[in-house]
Prior knowledge:
By secondary structure, the chain is of the alpha+beta class. It contains 3 helices and 9 strands; from the N terminus they run H-H-E-E-E-E-E-E-E-E-H-E.
Amino acid sequence: MNIFNLFVFLLLSFSANLKPINGKENWSDSDIERFNKQLEEVKQKIKSNPSYNNKIAFFVDMKIKSGKYRFFVYDLINDKILDEGLVANGCGSETGIAGNLQFSNEPNSNATSLGQYLIGKSYTGIFGKAYKLAGLDNTNSNALKRAVVLHSYSAVPEQEQDYYISRSHGCPMVNEVFFKRLQKIIDGSKFNIILNIYY
């Protein structure tokens, strides 16, 4: 078997081993591969600290356009998506090319920051109830300083659509109905939930 045939064989073998994500059977192999990589990293982070919730994690896939569900509530025990919703990206993440985003951890960038966040205490602000987010990576270490929080906004639609939704100033901003479902999970958890934003 020459090198090219070996490469094709390994590629096909790898693709065949990629299992559809429960709840997302329409994802491509590359979507599944990217998600599985993020899932493994989150599971490793959770193992490092007993204060993290080891049953539920939140994932946001910024490769998916904003008009489609890209915020996922994931069951770490049974390996399946429990819920999903729309989420805005920061206006500073726009590049002028639809679907192509850039990311920043810098104050006043108004951009989304990639990485794992610890969902902290709630407070009442201009958008009502919101949750503080502490960045756990170098790529989002300024989250608290930038006041990047998880909150709802009435302009974010509840259902998927074919056009892009409103943008935030860097916060993961969701629909009010979806936020209430997230709130129930967060407030009902005795341990800190990890939110992972990736691209």
